[in-house]
Amino acid sequence: MARDAAALAEFLARTPFFGGLGGEALRRIVGMTVQRGFAPGAAVFREGEQGRSMYVVESGELIAVQNGGSGRPVKLMRLGPGDFFGETTLIEMQPRPFSVMVERESRLLELTTVELYDLYRQDVKSYVLVLQNINRELCRRLRKASNRITAYADEAGDELTQIADSRPDLPRVKRGS
């Protein structure tokens, strides 16, 4: 399938991930992405796999799923055109925290860590804008998750849901002599 670079650049400009980028930067990024097609029932990636890329949904519908403590899958979010996922792998280089399953035939644009590094080398300003966009979206998702946890805890009467001693063990410093 031939790619319409101008249409892809226009599409990417409307996504939260690439919003604010100029024409040349968008054309560069279009050249870095790879279109991938997925059939219903396919896994884009699975929880625990090592990731090296993120995806923007061009068309279709997907579900992000994480295994709960009981072993049952928990649906985290529904993904559609313009949404992106897998970006945490580009930042923290940890295994995938969830699986992404295809609900309806989907076309995705894949951007790997190698291409993101190439963007850094070629155009630092655009690279920084992309990272700001990632951080902005991660903050939105964190706020939404926090609101949901608060609502669930409030409904359950559980005031301790988010309270935990998460400070790392640090050596004690003696004061005075």
Number of strands: 6
Q: Alpha-carbon distance between the termini?
A: 74 Å
Structural class estimated from helices and strands = alpha+beta
- What is the third-level CATH name, the topology of the largest domain? Jelly Rolls
Q: Sketch the topology as an H/E string, one letter per element.
A: HHEEEEEHEHH
Please indicate the count of domains.
2
The CATH C-level name of the largest domain is Mainly Beta
> CATH superfamily assignment of the largest domain?
Jelly Rolls
What is the level-2 CATH architecture name of the largest domain?
Answer: Sandwich
**Low-confidence blocks of residues:** none
Number of H/I helices = 5
Rg calc: 19 Å
Question: What do the pLDDT scores average to?
Answer: 87
Q: Helical content, roughly?
A: 25-40%
Largest β-sheet summary: 6 strands, antiparallel
Can you give a write-up of this model?
The protein contains 5 helices and 6 strands; from the N terminus they run ααβββββαβαα. The longest helix has 33 residues, at 124-156. Helix 1 crosses helix 2 (23-32) and helix 4 (113-122) packs across helix 5 (124-156). The chain has 2 domains: 1-32 and 119-157, no CATH class; 35-112, Jelly Rolls. The mean pLDDT is 87. With 177 residues, it is α+β, with helices and mostly antiparallel strands. It is globular. Strands 1, 2, 3, 4, 5 and 6 form a 6-stranded antiparallel beta sheet that branches. Helix content is 38%, strand content 26%.
